[in-house]
């Protein structure tokens, strides 16, 4: 299982970076309240925490991209506060942020010049990281995302940082490139440089980190040495409680098979984006899970079904009739609606909960007239109650908590009585309790004959909500697993395109 | 790469348009000669500087509604200072006015950074302020200009190794324009500041994270805009010999030419060459219509139509490119 | 003889200037000597007029008749024109370029006559609202001289408000409304030809009808004989000076140069305070004209077109 | 992530006032308006009377209508720089056509270019995705050029402002300007559309988050097309009213209102980036700017100083307002 890496470096007692009591408020939202992090020279230090725990915020504060609301940061024992990333860079702290930071309209050479990065070492690192055909004249915008991430890293490495901060550097990378990153990070630490490493992948943590700091709700809740068996501890700390095996929540209540007639949605030989040839069916009253590794084209699939993107080949049938969507409005008319993974893509952040939920009602031209306010209030209130949305800050959705925001995006379609909801990683960045509520809600909907297509990046969710799991790999559906056998291990194998193991795990 | 080609294609397209118009001009008026081309370039001067000012700011992701008002301030300042003064006094006036433009522009940038009010609103406010300042300096068109300054844009200069038949087609006004723009623009393009200006225009966040001082860069971009506007103001004074406190039509013209020149509103893209050629094209259109004795107001229609159609076409092509 | 004449004017939409253009067209047509007019008529400033005049030079005209935006601002282009042998005539306002001819109303006298009458009506004391023309235009600065000369003769008359109307009706009206909204008392209004809208404004806002001086614009002349309680005077300022300008240019092209480069037409004052004045106003009134057109639609000794021709506003070949 | 409940803990007074104002953004505007009127009354005692109020309202109305166009377009993240041209065209056409064809046809003809320009703007912005600033600037140039050419064809006919427009624009009945007869319905309509109709919701939605609106089935170009046509029509109506007020049609009649119309919307709290603002604030903004203009005239400053103060105050108010609303 987990093993600690090689021989320990001589441990100096003086940390190179020491942050204590760091806090950051965004209005009413406390992204960080009391975070601390101490990194030793030559150490690879993992920063862990659930989505929204505040990892990225901490990185931004440490590197001067965001001003803290409180706390103290010491570099080599000296208290510092960086006013800009430039200042942090000069002090030897170089980040790779979670989002690409290349200037989109500049070519690579200019991007290097902008950060005064020497070209030779940069090119060296790029090759080292496994990218061989890079043109310095290419405009950053035109470079694929994964390569942009590699360039970000190479640029940071070329600056010869004392402390390198990597925020989910590997998340968007294919496995081979991710491995290269791990190699490179190891060598950094061997050379006596420190690395702060953020990732949700335990394999990577185990492979190279010395210690881990765990954040929960903006607070440091533990610092652990990476050793065998620490994984459980970390997860416990991250979630704040021992994860109960919440098996069999409701998925016994399947009604799929009993519904006669054509499937609610049938996808045949669909090609869109990275997807080459995808076929599956979604029955009435079914929650079908979609499982795929990052970047397999699942987002394109959902967008195509929601009418937000045109497929290049294949057909979509709804209730047995072929449909063609030129606009999400067409899909909505056919009863298909998307709940995107990124809440900021779905919400009118400055508008009220009520307006957000009622938005689809006003969209069609014939509804541009006066609003039936009483009806609207009734519909919206019903939806709010059904999802138990905390509406204390309902005048502006941006003041709601993330979980409540996510509920609003779902409530919208429940109020509109949309028959098929396409949920794309709806529980991303949501606390455990809210997650449960969402599972329950979706099962309830299925029980009433609604259909749900459910993509999740957290594999154990499949067994909480889904009736089946459709696994996509390499542009195709490689497997459809019944929920009984769709545990994490089986799904992971399938997601990597490996064949099913014949016998069920003991 | 594709982007590079496309950008150059835009400029090339403008050049073709210019050549077509030039040929048309010669067809309409066979007597059209070097002297007339000189007139064209003199008419181009203030517009070209106005559009240069706007271009820098737009590339930095902003917009400057006070361009014409800054031109008015600098123009009347120059005219008032040179009024009745000795010829050599102008030697002092020119750098002073350029510095003034730089300061006015920097003030715009500073207010945008400091108040966090959107740039459109800030420069809308300073548009009124600068207009007022111009009126306080001269409440009516007037003042004067040194003769040698006026002479700066009239006629031609002999250029070594070039026959007169060639230099006749290189009027001083063109030379002044090219030198003034090049002296600022070429070093800027190559400098870290120039890069930073493109960077903040392309993505303020990414630029900030790349260590660019967004505030300082923005102020600098507006300041350079102000410098170009001051050149425009000076060019007005030295072509009319007076300063006029009410701003001319340079704001709308500058925005139009920036867009026609292939610089995207929103920033981060484009160069100076396209907008300058666009401005020349627009002036030549007016000349041609005058030669044809067309109502000058029809020129307004045609300028508007060119703008609308070209921009729609550009947007349409961009859209096609995106869906591919 | 078949000449082409270029025309440049920088105020559009002002009735006086429209009459001027029509007079130019009518005179060109009536003369029979002009094959083509090339008219650059738009709202612009000195810089824009420079461009227009230069484009007219490029177009190869034989003469340019120009109403200058500024006395000095377009000299460079005028010089270029005369250097090429093009006859340049400035109408209505003077230019300082010595090679150009000027034919205009005597602007200083225009202002002096009206202002003096007004101050007399005010009993030699009180506040006057001074509504000027376009800032920097030489007609305006010449009129300012005349106005100041009259003012000097009446030490108890004070200017309580001075604005530039830009010779635009809408601006003038807005300005007087703005001003009367401030409640500052005044006893007379002098206008640089933006007159009938001022009377309208006073009537509409029920402000006291003080004496008003304006030009001989049809609307204002009509008001002087019809508006109850309005005292005022119209000073002649013929827009038809444009026709005279064309006539002068043609004369010069034909080789008959005038003795002086400056030709002045002297204004007259028609007031409604005396019976004699009223009679003159009655005789001059012409309700068939657009209210913003001056009633003096021809200049004896210069223009040769008929009323129908100027009203039709058609040039050669139209 | 967590939300701290705004509640029991002691909040400093300054912050409380701010929070109060940020929840009621109209309060500071009303305060400012009152302050300006008080200043006026102190500078010239007795000026604030029935006649003055009627006059101020008369002049604020056309500005408020044009600022309504800006408010609606700005809610979607746009701006309509063609409103002054449209207003001028409507004014000029009605003054030249109503004489011959009567008021009904005159008004119809006057509003025709408004519809055309609105359509062009809507198509450019909504379908071709041209930046609204550029699109409306372009159509405005075309429009003004057409008007100037048109003017040359009607020189002989002359202009005459129809009597009913003068009555509406300048008349006062029982102390109330007749213009209110037009403005109250128009303002109520705008307020109703923005607050109580599906279309109004969509304007906010499109400006707040276009992608979210699209995913909810909102068809962007339809909304934008309707918006710009509506804005143009409104501008045309404002032009008709304004020519009734000024009674002197010219080719630049409404030009001086363009920038103030943007300023009124901005001062009234509408965000130029879209999604935030409302028409009540804009009406207050228009009143504030009108009173401010009078105040500056009364101060008898030279024109230059007046413009400087005007600019500074617009900037100051916007900056202060931003602070109040954004900092929570
Ligand atoms: N600019 C902002 N305005 C308001 N809230 C913010 C802002 N940035 C972050 N937050 C909130 O602060 C919390 C911490 O966010 P942060 O991005 O640091 O989390 P994270 O631990 O990096 O999560 P992930 O694993 O998803 O990247 C989240 O609830 C987030 O919504
Ligand atoms: N603006 C709104 N927001 C939220 N819910 C709404 C809104 N308007 C209507 N509803 C709800 O949507 C459903 C249908 O509304 P409504 O009664 O207006 O439709 P209808 O007129 O019966 O149908 P149609 O217009 O399709 O013929 C009802 O349940 C109503 O409560
Ligand atoms: O009187 C004015 C005239 O002299 C000026 O030049 O143009 C407009 C007229 O109103
Ligand atoms: Mg995050
Ligand atoms: Mg993060």
From TrEMBL, chain A:
Q: Report what the protein is called.
A: Ribose transport system ATP-binding protein
Q: Where is the ABC transporter domain?
A: 17-242, 260-499
Per its UniProt record, what InterPro entries does this chain match? AAA+_ATPase, ABC_carbohydrate_import_ATPase, ABC_transporter-like_ATP-bd, ABC_transporter-like_CS, P-loop_NTPase
Q: Which GO terms describe its molecular function?
A: ATP binding; ATP hydrolysis activity
Transmembrane feature ranges: none
Keyword tags: ATP-binding, Cell membrane, Membrane, Nucleotide-binding, Repeat, Sugar transport, Translocase, Transport
Q: Which family does it belong to?
A: Belongs to the ABC transporter superfamily.
Q: Tell me the classification of the organism that encodes this protein.
A: Bacteria, Pseudomonadati, Pseudomonadota, Alphaproteobacteria, Hyphomicrobiales
Q: Which PANTHER family match?
A: CARBOHYDRATE TRANSPORT ATP-BINDING PROTEIN MG119-RELATED (PTHR43790), D-ALLOSE IMPORT ATP-BINDING PROTEIN ALSA-RELATED (PTHR43790:SF3)
Automatic annotation (TrEMBL), chain B:
CDD domains assigned to the protein according to its UniProt record, in alphabetical order = TM_PBP1_transp_AraH_like (cd06579)
* Compartment list: Cell membrane
The answer to whether the entry has keyword Transmembrane is: yes
Primary subcellular site in the record, as a coarse category:
membrane
| Pfam families named in the record | BPD_transp_2
Q: Does the keyword Transmembrane helix apply?
A: yes
Looking up InterPro entries in the UniProt record yields: ABC_transp_permease
Which key words are in the record?
Answer: Cell inner membrane, Cell membrane, Membrane, Transmembrane, Transmembrane helix, Transport
Q: Which GO terms describe its molecular function?
A: transmembrane transporter activity
| TM helices/strands, residue ranges | 48-78, 90-114, 120-138, 169-188, 219-242, 248-265, 272-294, 300-319
Q: What is one term from the GO cellular component aspect held by the record?
A: plasma membrane
Task: Tell me how this protein sits in the membrane.
Answer: Multi-pass membrane protein
State its role: Part of the ABC transporter complex LsrABCD involved in autoinducer 2 (AI-2) import. Probably responsible for the translocation of the substrate across the membrane.
Query: Can you state the subunit structure given in the record?
Result: The complex is composed of two ATP-binding proteins (LsrA), two transmembrane proteins (LsrC and LsrD) and a solute-binding protein (LsrB).
Q: What is this protein called?
A: Autoinducer 2 import system permease protein LsrD
Organism of origin? Kaistia hirudinis
TrEMBL record, chain D:
One of the record's GO cellular component terms: plasma membrane
Q: What is its main location?
A: membrane
Q: How does it sit in the membrane?
A: Multi-pass membrane protein
**Protein name according to UniProt:** Ribose transport system permease protein
Q: Which domain of life is it from?
A: Bacteria
Task: Kindly give the PANTHER family that the UniProt entry links to this protein.
Answer: ABC TRANSPORTER PERMEASE PROTEIN YPHD-RELATED-RELATED, RIBOSE IMPORT PERMEASE PROTEIN RBSC
Bilayer-crossing residues are 26-46, 105-128, 133-151, 171-194, 219-245, 282-302, 308-325
User: Cellular location of this protein?
Assistant: Cell membrane
GO molecular function terms noted in the UniProt entry: transmembrane transporter activity
Xref: InterPro entries? ABC_transp_permease
Matching CDD domains = TM_PBP1_transp_AraH_like
Q: Which Pfam families match?
A: BPD_transp_2
Q: Which UniProt keywords apply?
A: Cell membrane, Membrane, Transmembrane, Transmembrane helix
């Amino acid at each position: 299982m987990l093993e600690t890496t090689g021989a320990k470096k001589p441990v100096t007692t003086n940390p190179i970076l020491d942050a204590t009591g760091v806090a950051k408020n965004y209005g009413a939202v406390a992204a960080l309240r009391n975070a601390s992090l101490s990194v030793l020279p030559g150490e690879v230090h993992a920063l862990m925490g659930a989505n929204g725990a505040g990892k990225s915020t901490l990185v931004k504060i440490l590197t001067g991209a965001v001003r803290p609301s409180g706390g103290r940061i010491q570099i080599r024992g000296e208290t510092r506060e960086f006013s800009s990333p430039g200042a942090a860079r000069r002090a030897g702290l170089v980040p790779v942020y979670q989002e690409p930071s290349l200037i989109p309209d500049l070519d690579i050479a200019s991007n290097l010049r902008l950060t005064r990065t020497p070209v030779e070492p940069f090119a060296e690192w790029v090759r080292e990281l496994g990218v061989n055909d890079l043109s310095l004249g290419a405009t950053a915008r035109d470079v694929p995302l994964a390569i942009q991430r590699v360039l970000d890293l190479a640029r940071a490495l070329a600056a010869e940082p004392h402390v390198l901060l990597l925020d989910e550097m590997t998340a968007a990378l294919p496995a081979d490139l991710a491995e290269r990153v791990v190699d490179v990070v190891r060598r950094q630490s061997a050379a006596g440089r420190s690395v702060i490493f953020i990732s949700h992948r335990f394999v990577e943590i185990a492979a190279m980190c010395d210690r881990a700091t765990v954040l929960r709700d903006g607070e440091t809740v533990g610092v652990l040495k990476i050793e065998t068996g620490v994984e459980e501890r970390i997860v416990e700390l991250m979630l704040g409680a021992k994860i109960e095996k919440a098996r069999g929540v409701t998925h016994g209540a399947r009604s799929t098979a009993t519904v006669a007639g054509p499937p609610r949605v049938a996808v045949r030989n669909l090609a869109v984006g990275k997807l080459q040839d995808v076929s599956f069916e979604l029955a009435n009253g079914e929650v079908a899970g979609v499982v795929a590794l990052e970047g397999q084209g699942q987002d394109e699939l959902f967008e195509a079904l929601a009418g937000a993107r045109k497929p290049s080949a294949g057909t979509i049938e709804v209730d047995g009739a072929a449909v063609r969507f030129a606009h999400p409005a067409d899909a909505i008319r056919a009863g298909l609606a998307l709940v995107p993974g990124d809440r900021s893509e779905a919400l009118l952040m400055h508008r009220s909960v009520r307006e957000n939920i009622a938005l689809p009602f006003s969209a069609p031209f014939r509804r541009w007239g006066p609003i039936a306010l009483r009806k609207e209030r009734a519909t919206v209130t019903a939806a709010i109650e059904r999802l138990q949305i905390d509406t204390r800050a309902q005048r502006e959705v941006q003041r709601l908590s993330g979980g409540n925001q996510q509920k609003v995006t779902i409530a919208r379609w429940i109020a509109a009585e949309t028959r098929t909801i396409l949920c794309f990683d709806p529980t991303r960045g949501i606390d455990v309790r809210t997650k449960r509520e969402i599972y329950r809600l979706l099962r309830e909907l299925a029980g009433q004959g609604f259909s749900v297509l459910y993509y999740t990046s957290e594999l154990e969710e499949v067994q909480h909500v889904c009736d089946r799991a459709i696994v996509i790999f390499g542009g195709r559906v490689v497997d459809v697993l019944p929920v009984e056998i769709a545990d994490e291990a089986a799904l992971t194998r399938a997601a990597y395109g490996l064949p099913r193991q014949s016998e069920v795990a003991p | 790469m594709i982007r590079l080609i496309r950008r150059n294609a835009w400029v090339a397209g403008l050049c073709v348009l210019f050549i077509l118009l030039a040929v048309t001009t010669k067809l309409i008026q066979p007597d059209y000669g070097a002297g007339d081309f000189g007139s064209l370039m003199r008419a181009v001067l203030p517009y070209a500087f106005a559009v240069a000012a706007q271009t820098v700011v737009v590339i930095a992701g902003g917009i400057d509604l006070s361009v014409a008002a800054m031109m008015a301030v600098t123009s009347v300042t120059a005219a008032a200072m040179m009024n009745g003064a000795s010829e050599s006094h102008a030697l002092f006036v020119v750098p002073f006015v350029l510095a003034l433009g730089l300061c006015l522009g920097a003030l715009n940038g500073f207010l945008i950074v400091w108040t966090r009010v959107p740039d459109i609103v800030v420069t809308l406010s300073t548009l009124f302020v600068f207009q007022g300042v111009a009126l306080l300096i001269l409440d009516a068109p007037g003042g004067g200009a040194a003769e040698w300054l006026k002479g700066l844009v009239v006629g031609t200069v002999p250029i070594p190794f070039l026959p007169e038949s060639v230099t006749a087609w290189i009027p001083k006004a063109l030379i002044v324009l090219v030198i003034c723009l090049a002296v600022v623009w070429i070093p800027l393009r190559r400098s870290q500041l120039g890069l930073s200006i493109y960077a903040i225009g392309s993505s303020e966040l990414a630029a900030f994270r790349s260590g660019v001082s967004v505030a300082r860069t923005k102020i600098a971009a507006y300041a350079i805009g102000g410098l170009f506007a001051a050149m425009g103001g000076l060019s007005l004074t030295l072509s009319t010999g007076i300063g006029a406190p009410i701003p001319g039509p340079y704001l709308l013209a500058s925005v139009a030419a920036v867009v026609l020149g292939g610089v995207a509103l929103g920033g981060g893209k484009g160069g100076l060459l396209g907008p300058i050629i666009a401005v020349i094209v627009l002036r030549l259109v007016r000349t041609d219509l005058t030669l044809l004795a067309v109502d000058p107001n029809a020129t307004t229609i045609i300028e508007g139509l060119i703008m609308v159609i070209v921009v729609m076409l550009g947007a349409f092509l961009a859209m096609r490119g995106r869906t591919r | 003889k078949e000449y082409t004449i270029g025309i440049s004017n920088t105020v559009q939409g002002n009735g006086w200037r429209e009459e001027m253009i029509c007079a130019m067209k009518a005179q060109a047509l009536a003369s029979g000597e002009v094959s083509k007019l090339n008219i650059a008529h738009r709202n612009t400033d000195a810089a824009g007029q420079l461009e227009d005049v230069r484009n007219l030079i490029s177009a190869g005209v034989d003469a340019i008749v120009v109403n200058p935006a500024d006395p000095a601002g377009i000299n460079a282009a005028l010089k270029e024109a005369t250097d090429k042998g093009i006859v340049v005539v400035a109408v209505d306002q003077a230019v300082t370029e010595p090679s150009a001819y000027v034919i205009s109303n005597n602007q200083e006298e225009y202002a002096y006559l009206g202002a003096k009458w007004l101050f007399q009506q005010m009993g030699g004391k009180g506040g006057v609202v001074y509504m000027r023309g376009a800032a920097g235009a030489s007609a305006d600065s010449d009129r300012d001289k005349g106005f100041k000369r009259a003012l000097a003769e009446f030490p108890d008359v004070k200017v309580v408000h001075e604005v530039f109307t830009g010779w635009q009706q809408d601006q003038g009206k807005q300005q007087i409304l703005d001003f009367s909204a401030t409640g500052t008392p005044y006893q007379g209004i002098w206008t640089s030809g933006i007159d009938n809208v001022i009377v309208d404004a006073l009537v509409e806002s029920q402000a006291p009808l003080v004496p008003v001086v304006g030009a001989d614009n049809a609307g204002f002349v009509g008001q002087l004989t019809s508006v109850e309680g309005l005292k005022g005077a119209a000073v002649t300022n013929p827009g038809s000076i444009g026709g005279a300008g064309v006539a002068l240019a043609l004369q010069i092209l034909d080789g008959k140069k005038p003795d002086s480069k400056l030709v002045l037409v002297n204004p007259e004052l028609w007031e409604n305070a005396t019976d004699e004045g009223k009679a003159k106003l009655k005789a001059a009134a012409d309700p068939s004209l657009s209210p913003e057109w001056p009633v003096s639609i021809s200049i004896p000794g210069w223009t040769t077109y008929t009323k129908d021709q100027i009203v039709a506003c058609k040039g050669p070949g139209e | 992530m967590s939300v701290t409940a705004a509640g029991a803990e002691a909040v400093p007074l300054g912050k409380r006032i701010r929070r109060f104002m940020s929840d009621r953004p109209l309060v500071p505007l009303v305060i400012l308006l009152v302050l300006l009127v008080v200043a006026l009354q102190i500078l010239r005692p007795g000026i604030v009377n029935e006649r003055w109020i009627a006059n101020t309202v008369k002049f604020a109305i056309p500005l408020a209508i044009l600022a309504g166009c800006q408010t609606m377009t700005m809610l979607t993240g746009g701006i309509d720089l063609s409103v002054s041209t449209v207003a001028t065209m409507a004014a000029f056409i009605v003054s030249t056509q109503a004489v011959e064809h009567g008021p009904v046809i005159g008004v119809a003809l006057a509003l025709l270019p408004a519809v055309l320009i609105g359509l062009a703007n809507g198509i450019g912005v909504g379908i071709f995705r041209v930046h609204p600033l550029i699109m409306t600037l372009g159509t405005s140039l075309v429009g003004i050029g057409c008007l100037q050419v048109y003017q040359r064809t009607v020189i002989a006919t002359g202009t005459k402002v129809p009597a009913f427009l003068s009555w509406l624009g300048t008349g006062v009945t029982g102390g109330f300007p007749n213009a209110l007869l037009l403005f109250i319905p128009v303002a109520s309509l705008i307020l109703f559309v923005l607050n109580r109709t599906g279309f109004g919701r969509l304007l906010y939605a499109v400006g707040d988050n276009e992608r979210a609106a699209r995913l909810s089935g909102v068809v962007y170009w339809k909304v934008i097309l309707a918006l710009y046509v509506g804005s143009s029509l409104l501008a045309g109506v404002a032009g008709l009213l304004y020519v009734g007020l000024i009674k002197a049609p010219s080719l630049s009649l409404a030009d001086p209102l363009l920038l103030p119309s943007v300023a009124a919307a901005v001062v009234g709290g509408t965000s130029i980036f879209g999604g935030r603002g409302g028409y009540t604030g804009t009406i207050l903004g228009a009143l504030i700017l009108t009173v401010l203009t009078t105040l500056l005239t009364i101060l008898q400053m030279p024109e230059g100083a007046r413009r400087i103060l005007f600019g500074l105050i617009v900037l100051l108010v916007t900056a202060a307002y931003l602070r109040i609303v954004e900092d929570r």
